[in-house]
Amino acid sequence: MSLSEDFRQSMPRDQLWPFLIEKQPPAVDASKNILLYVEGLSVSFDGFKALNDLNLYINDGELRCLIGANGAGKTTLMDVITGKTRADSGQVWFGQTLDLFDRDEAEIAALGIGRKFQKPSVFEAQTVFTNLELAMKVNKSIFYGLLSRLGSAELDRIAHVLETIGLQGQESMLAGALSHGQKQWLEIGMLLIADPRLMLVDEPVAGMTPQETERTAELLTSLAGERTVVVVEHDMEFVRSIARTVTVLHQGAVLAEGSMQEVQNNPEVIEVYLGEGH
Ligand SMILES: Nc1ncnc2c1ncn2[C@@H]1O[C@H](COP(=O)(O)OP(=O)(O)O)[C@@H](O)[C@H]1O
Ligand SMILES: [Mg+2]
């Protein structure tokens, strides 16, 4: 079996098809300095409101942390932003002009919104380099790309990403031989290949060693600015180490927002989330 066939068959359909778009997507207009507008968002599952009139505004270039107890709606919010779940009501805009509700999952990915799920899904039987190469090729064009060789600009891009994720020198290793933390970084690298404007990262440090957690904090901090990063995380030490602004979700709505210190001292937050037992 050829590598490209192997790749197509091993990649779940719902992860493959966002890459099939070939036409140039419209550019995002972040001129008001807000990259993502979420307004009045509600989603129900069998009458249960997973999101309940939620409002959220993410500035261009910021690193935002989303926290909240299990079931608060964090993953559902990411599902709606990325077009995986349809909302019952509300609006989601990418910059001033792009209504994400007009678009499907593939179109939203092509606009420059990358998402990292909680579980790493690298191709373990392939090398680190090949994982990045495949991410590059599917991002460009599956039909043309998988058959052709990479040009020097593309090789430079891979080298740059390897350095960013701290895996330079390890490109010939099989991804399956990486540590759990390195696999997570490789997957972040596979997202970075597409140069997303907005990255949504769900629980990146779950299962990591303290050193890996620290390195991930540095990595995500270094990515913000040039791009916008929204991180869902339970590890409060980690959140404390990276966050400028923390948004606390509770029962599908925003309970509090501010610096880690403001949020930690908010009585409502203490009561429902940060209180005893956390
Ligand atoms: N596809 C679904 N069908 C039914 N209920 C769901 C679905 N997705 C999420 N929920 C429910 O919505 C609530 C919010 O879930 P989720 O967004 O995963 O929370 P979090 O990521 O903050 O832990 C939970 O009560 C969950 O059980
Ligand atoms: Mg979740």
Automatic annotation (TrEMBL):
InterPro entries: ABC_AA/LPS_Transport, ABC_transporter-like_ATP-bd, ABC_transptr_urea_ATP-bd_UrtD, BCA_ABC_TP_C, P-loop_NTPase. CDD domains: ABC_Mj1267_LivG_branched. GO terms for molecular function: ATP binding. Keywords: ATP-binding, Nucleotide-binding, Transport. Residues 36-276 form the ABC transporter domain. This is Urea ABC transporter ATP-binding protein UrtD. It comes from Candidatus Litorirhabdus singularis.
